[in-house]
């Protein structure tokens, strides 16, 4: 929602209680940016450290690779797929409340996880509750950035994304240290306290309101034609078909809600959005596999636990420098309309890099793998939403984003457990990287070739339209010849 808005308007829940205008792109806005950096590190960066606890959780609950991988899969899927619910809460209660609610849920989920007696309980506490809390904090935090920054919005979003890289760097190192000193239960308890700092970040993100009343008024939802008269009839009981009208009204409101947050009409009509959504959803089947299984794979091949955790930190450290640069570079006008090819190239490099792990599991080779993987991952992460803005009109972006994240979360959910099941059957960790390469390479080729074909089709259509608009320019000398049907 924050990416969609080009004007600084707070939701109804935050419009009340402040009568003075807040400056944008200056002053307190930079404190909000600092809070957003911390927030993204606490939310998006947190799931990367779960691989450190993989072997301990397996041993504690006597669980297979597939059963254990459901825990991070649920967390990441809910983090990405809870977007529509977060948008509804932001509209009703405002960004600040939702960020703080998310911090409370995240902390509660991890504290509860430290008392779990079975792996299935961990699915509910750390997977569902912590994942949902992280979703609320992250997405509401991104939304409030769109209100505080107008002129420097691109720069602010690029700087805020460094929080993810900081999280990737620090979470694994902290996890391994606490795990060695205290065990996984006490570590999860401490993590609950750390994630409560999302509430502090939310408190910094105070509501902003412009002095102009017309803008605030435009934020109110428009009434549908005839809805007022219909509701009046229902309230007065004047209609003979009271129950029928009531059901019809409910169906209309439900359809409008789905249309607003899940853009099925765009998916059916916009070929570019259709190709990109399917391609990204397919990509996510293999995208998270190295993050979940890289540490267990390294430990399985004789790498020390401390060094194995350091691999994830290397990925995050390189991301700190590469990801903002990639985001700013792709925003140059030279790449306008061509970002989908950059995204496909990054996904292709991601898939090809997995073959390094198949060749060797030496620590020095795994460091090289992490460097290349981090560069590719920076491209995918920085371009995902920019490409979506290219293929969808901005007035429908939030709707398109809702369906996009739902489909993405489904594949993020089922990818690691399916691969874990394959590893359990074969006892071979190489299938993690085979699967990841298959999904990423095939998705990259699908998107790149499909958009290339779509672009050629659009050019032919435009040329044909130009012929029809200016027939005198394309007349033949022999006027008796009849044109063939296209």
UniProtKB/TrEMBL annotation:
Cellular compartments annotated? Membrane
Keywords annotated in UniProt = Membrane, Transmembrane, Transmembrane helix
Give the membrane topology: Multi-pass membrane protein
Quote the SUPFAM superfamilies the UniProt record gives: MFS general substrate transporter (SSF103473)
Amino acid composition bias (Polar residues), ranges on this chain? 233-243
Residue span(s) of domain Major facilitator superfamily (MFS) profile: 29-460
From the UniProt entry, list the residue stretches annotated as the region Disordered: 219-247
Provide the transmembrane region boundaries.
28-54, 70-90, 97-115, 121-148, 155-174, 186-205, 275-296, 308-328, 340-360, 366-388, 400-419, 431-454
**Molecular function terms in GO for this entry?**
monocarboxylic acid transmembrane transporter activity
Q: Which GO terms describe its cellular component?
A: basolateral plasma membrane
Among Pfam families, the record links this protein to: MFS_1
Q: Which domain of life is it from?
A: Eukaryota
Q: Which InterPro entries match?
A: MFS, MFS_dom, MFS_trans_sf, Proton-linked_MCT
Instruction: Provide the protein name.
Output: Monocarboxylate transporter 6
Q: Which organism is it from?
A: Lamprotornis superbus
């Amino acid at each position: 929602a924050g990416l969609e808005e080009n004007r600084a308007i707070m939701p109804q829940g935050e419009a009340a209680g402040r009568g003075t205008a807040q400056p944008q792109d200056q002053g307190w806005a930079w404190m909000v940016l600092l809070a957003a950096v911390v927030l993204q590190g606490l939310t998006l960066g947190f799931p990367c450290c779960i691989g450190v606890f993989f072997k301990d959780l397996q041993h504690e609950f006597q669980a297979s690779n597939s059963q254990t991988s459901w825990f991070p899969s649920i967390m990441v899927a809910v983090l990405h797929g809870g977007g529509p619910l977060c948008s509804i809460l932001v509209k009703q209660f405002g960004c600040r409340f939702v960020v703080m609610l998310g911090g409370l849920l995240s902390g509660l989920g991890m504290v509860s996880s430290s008392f779990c007696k079975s792996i299935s309980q961990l699915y509910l506490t750390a997977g569902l509750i912590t994942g949902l809390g992280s979703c609320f904090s992250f997405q509401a935090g991104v939304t409030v950035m769109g209100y505080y920054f107008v002129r420097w919005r691109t720069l602010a979003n690029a700087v805020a994304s460094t929080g993810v890289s900081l999280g990737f760097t620090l979470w694994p190192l902290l996890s391994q240290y606490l795990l060695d000193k205290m065990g996984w239960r006490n570590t999860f308890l401490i993590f609950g306290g750390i994630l409560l700092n999302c509430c502090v970040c939310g408190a910094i993100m105070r509501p902003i309101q412009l002095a102009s009343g017309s803008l605030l008024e435009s934020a109110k939802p428009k009434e549908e034609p005839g809805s007022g008269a219909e509701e009046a009839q229902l309230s007065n009981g004047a209609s003979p078909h009271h129950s029928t009208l009531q059901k019809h009204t409910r169906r209309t409101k439900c359809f409008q809600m789905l249309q607003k947050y899940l853009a099925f009409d765009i998916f059916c009509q916009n070929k570019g959005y259709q190709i990109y959504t399917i391609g990204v959803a397919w990509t996510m089947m293999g995208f998270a596999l190295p993050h979940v299984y890289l540490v267990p794979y390294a430990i399985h091949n004789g790498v020390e636990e401390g060094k194995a955790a350091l691999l994830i930190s290397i990925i995050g450290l390189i991301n700190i420098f590469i990801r903002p640069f990639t985001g700013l570079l792709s925003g140059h006008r030279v790449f306008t309309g061509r970002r989908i090819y950059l995204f496909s190239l990054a996904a292709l490099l991601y898939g090809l890099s997995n073959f390094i792990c198949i060749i060797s599991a030496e620590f020095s080779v795994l460091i090289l793998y992490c460097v290349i993987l981090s560069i590719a991952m920076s491209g995918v992460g920085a371009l995902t939403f920019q490409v979506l803005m290219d293929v969808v009109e901005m007035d429908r972006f939030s709707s398109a984003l809702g369906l996009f994240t739902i489909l993405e979360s489904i594949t993020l959910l089922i990818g690691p457990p399916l691969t874990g099941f394959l590893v359990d059957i074969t006892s071979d960790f190489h299938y993690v990287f085979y699967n990841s390469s298959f999904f990423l390479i095939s998705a990259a080729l699908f998107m790149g070739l499909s958009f290339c074909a779509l672009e050629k089709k659009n050019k032919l259509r435009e040329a044909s339209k130009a012929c029809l608009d200016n027939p005198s320019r394309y007349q033949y000398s022999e006027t008796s010849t009849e044109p063939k049907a296209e």
